[in-house]
């Protein structure tokens, strides 16, 4: 933390873009001012669209800062339920989408009616997901799905969580049950699927990507038996983009497990399928915004005042 006196002496600005832990709406004071010398406006926007001509911008936060009314540093709050930073562009450039967050900084001199600084910095945000569809056990949050197939061949799968970062290991547990079946399970197939779809201004959803990211075959079980808890590990690929679910862009991942029977009848030959949605977080691309070009030496002709605002005078994301 920078000492308060040092901040005032060198006119440093500190901006933090994050959501406090255990944040409650009741903590917001509507009368509280975010203010700094010479009038400063901080604005966070969300921008998204499926092509260059189809872009929507929504304000997430705006604070007006006036001289001498606030002590530094201060925080810029974000909202729960925000999508991760996201960007997609296919090889020919005809299909693209972006969710981008920026901090806009504007400093004006009210006496001379002069804009001293007006810049923006892109920042990267991870999703804020509430895992409401989880069951809780003594060891932590548990997500469990149970599927029953005709012919009484049973398959259940479980993961310790459904929220992962690229490169993280997903631990899968599954149970096979053929105690009420006359057929065995010949094999179990595990897949991680990726789906990306855009909704254009004609309101038609178009599938852009439908890929199998991971597939692996596991042994089955003979008829009339119930397996113990079986385990399998999957390493999430490092190059995955974040899970996004919004009006215009849907980018999601599905963990799918199939148990294949050796039944001669068509109904028994259909595999048992269980699926779990997997939420992928954006891996933050940079820890600090780049302020190399934030250097201004502006002299007002009206009052002969001098302003200097350099990147060395700013401490962001300490």
UniProtKB/TrEMBL annotation:
It comes from the Eukaryota. GO terms for biological process: protein transport. InterPro entries: Arrestin_C-like, Arrestin_domain-protein. GO terms for cellular component: cytoplasm. Residues 150-282 form the Arrestin C-terminal-like domain. Signal peptide: none annotated. This is Arrestin C-terminal-like domain-containing protein. It comes from Paramecium pentaurelia.
């Amino acid at each position: 933390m920078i000492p308060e006196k040092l901040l005032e002496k060198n006119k440093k600005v500190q901006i933090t873009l994050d959501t406090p832990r255990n944040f409650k709406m009741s903590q917001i004071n509507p009368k509280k001012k975010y203010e700094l010398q010479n009038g400063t406006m901080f604005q966070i926007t969300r921008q998204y669209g499926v092509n260059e001509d189809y872009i929507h911008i929504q304000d997430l936060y705006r604070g007006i800062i006036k001289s001498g009314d606030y002590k530094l540093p201060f925080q810029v709050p974000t909202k729960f339920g925000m999508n991760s930073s996201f960007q997609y562009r296919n090889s020919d450039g005809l299909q693209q989408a972006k969710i981008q967050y920026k901090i806009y900084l504007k400093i004006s001199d009210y006496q001379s009616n002069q804009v001293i600084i007006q810049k923006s910095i892109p920042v990267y945000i991870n999703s804020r997901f509430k895992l409401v569809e989880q069951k809780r056990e003594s060891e932590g949050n548990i997500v469990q799905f149970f599927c029953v197939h005709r012919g009484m061949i049973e398959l259940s799968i479980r993961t310790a969580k459904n929220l992962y970062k690229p490169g993280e290991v997903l631990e899968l547990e599954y149970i096979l049950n053929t105690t009420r079946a006359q057929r065995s399970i010949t094999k179990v197939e595990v897949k991680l699927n990726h789906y990306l779809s855009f909704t254009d201004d004609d309101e038609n959803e178009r599938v852009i990507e439908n890929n199998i990211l991971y597939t692996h075959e596991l042994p089955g079980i003979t008829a009339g038996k119930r397996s113990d808890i079986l385990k399998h590990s999957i390493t999430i690929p490092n190059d995955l983009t974040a899970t996004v679910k919004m009006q215009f862009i849907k980018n999601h991942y599905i963990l799918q497990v199939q148990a294949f029977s050796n039944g001669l009848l068509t109904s028994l030959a259909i595999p048992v399928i269980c699926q779990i949605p997997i939420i992928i977080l954006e891996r933050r691309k940079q820890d600090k915004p780049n302020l190399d070009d934030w250097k201004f030496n502006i002299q007002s002709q009206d009052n002969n005042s001098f302003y200097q605002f350099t990147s060395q005078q700013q401490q962001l994301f300490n």
